[in-house]
Amino acid sequence: MTSKHENQRSAENQTTLLPSGVKLPFSRQHVRISNNNYLWTLAFFTQPPPCSPSGPLAQPRPPLVLLHGFGGGVALWAQNLDSLSSSGPVYTLDLLGFGRSSHPQFSTDPEGAEDQFVSALEEWRDKVGLEDMVLLGHNLGGYLSAAYTLKYPHSSIPVWIRAMGAVMSPFNPLAGLRLAGPLGPMLVQTVRSDFKQKYSSVFDDNTVSDYIYHLNAQTPSGETAFKNMTIPYGWAKRPMLERIDQVQADIPISFIYGSRSSIDSDSGYALKKTRPDVQIIVIRGAGHYVFADQPDDFNQTVLQILAGTEKKSRGEETEP
């Protein structure tokens, strides 16, 4: 179990992580949902210019909602938030069972656990007051973006799905980290030394590794749910590739891959055979954490997709 002291250190670590990488003002709060649960949420808003020389201002695009991957949290988007919020509102939240969100007991049934994640996201959308939203998910967040879109197609507009795999074992994947106790931060620094390089433009110390440790040193609620939704080596018990073609045809889907990722783009191209409108972008030099490996290219790619989606919604021509 996690002590209050550990939770406090996790909160303090996140507080120091974000301001260092984010220049724009933002709000933060726990959004309360049912069963005494809550989702830790950051909100970024860019005020539109007071007037437009070309005429009336266009309607602002739907809010962009960022969903982190397995073992992650909101602060890992630190190199993306300023840029992505330049064209409209951006929200990012810790998924139920992860980070600073509540850590409830999940169903041991894969479908039940998935539904808990998805229902929490829908309750969050309603409490925040969003009529619709653009979902951008990484890893587990991508999987849940697709699952949400299947269940609530009228609330979700485009969905980005990025690599849906993670190495699994018969045990909770991060149990060793918790067993390491005070050596946990050093373990993360050793096993995932690449994170220091990914965020070197923002930090020159072990801030990110410490953040990841404190995220995952807590009660393994979402982690256990993830384990129950997968078989060894991270394959989903309810594969999204077998269901994603059921997403409504008017909901755009884009995949963003890193050229150096261990997760190949085969799943994206498999869907494209039945959905030719699916967009697939490969960012050179990026690995699995494409948004952190090549943040500038990733940000520009997302902004371009957003702009193209807005044009389509207005019935305008877009470049091929």
TrEMBL record:
Please list the GO terms describing molecular function: 1-acylglycerol-3-phosphate O-acyltransferase activity; carboxylic ester hydrolase activity
Could you tell me which residue ranges the AB hydrolase-1 domain spans? 62-294
Q: Please tell me which top-level EC class this enzyme sits in.
A: transferase
- State the EC number(s): 2.3.1.51
Location in the cell reads:
Cytoplasm; Lipid droplet
Give GO terms for biological process.
cell differentiation; fatty acid metabolic process; lipid homeostasis; negative regulation of triglyceride storage; phosphatidic acid biosynthetic process; positive regulation of triglyceride catabolic process
- Which keywords annotate this record? Acyltransferase, Cytoplasm, Differentiation, Fatty acid metabolism, Lipid biosynthesis, Lipid droplet, Lipid metabolism, Phospholipid biosynthesis, Phospholipid metabolism, Transferase
InterPro entries reported for this sequence:
AB_hydrolase_1 (IPR000073), AB_hydrolase_fold (IPR029058)
Reaction catalysed by this chain? 1-hexadecanoyl-sn-glycero-3-phosphate + (9Z)-octadecenoyl-CoA = 1-hexadecanoyl-2-(9Z-octadecenoyl)-sn-glycero-3-phosphate + CoA; 1-(5Z,8Z,11Z,14Z-eicosatetraenoyl)-sn-glycero-3-phosphate + (9Z)-octadecenoyl-CoA = 1-(5Z,8Z,11Z,14Z)-eicosatetraenoyl-2-(9Z)-octadecenoyl-sn-glycero-3-phosphate + CoA; 1-(9Z-octadecenoyl)-sn-glycero-3-phosphate + (5Z,8Z,11Z,14Z)-eicosatetraenoyl-CoA = 1-(9Z)-octadecenoyl-2-(5Z,8Z,11Z,14Z)-eicosatetraenoyl-sn-glycero-3-phosphate + CoA; 1-(9Z-octadecenoyl)-sn-glycero-3-phosphate + hexadecanoyl-CoA = 1-(9Z)-octadecenoyl-2-hexadecanoyl-sn-glycero-3-phosphate + CoA
GO CC, one annotated term: mitochondrion
Q: Which PANTHER family match?
A: 1-ACYLGLYCEROL-3-PHOSPHATE O-ACYLTRANSFERASE ABHD5 (PTHR42886:SF34), RE40534P-RELATED (PTHR42886)
- Tell me the protein family, please: Belongs to the peptidase S33 family. ABHD4/ABHD5 subfamily.
| The protein's role, per its UniProt record | Coenzyme A-dependent lysophosphatidic acid acyltransferase that catalyzes the transfer of an acyl group on a lysophosphatidic acid. Functions preferentially with 1-oleoyl-lysophosphatidic acid followed by 1-palmitoyl-lysophosphatidic acid, 1-stearoyl-lysophosphatidic acid and 1-arachidonoyl-lysophosphatidic acid as lipid acceptor. Functions preferentially with arachidonoyl-CoA followed by oleoyl-CoA as acyl group donors. Functions in phosphatidic acid biosynthesis. May regulate the cellular storage of triacylglycerol through activation of the phospholipase PNPLA2.
Q: What is the official name of this protein in its record?
A: 1-acylglycerol-3-phosphate O-acyltransferase ABHD5
Q: Which organism is it from?
A: Etheostoma spectabile (orangethroat darter)
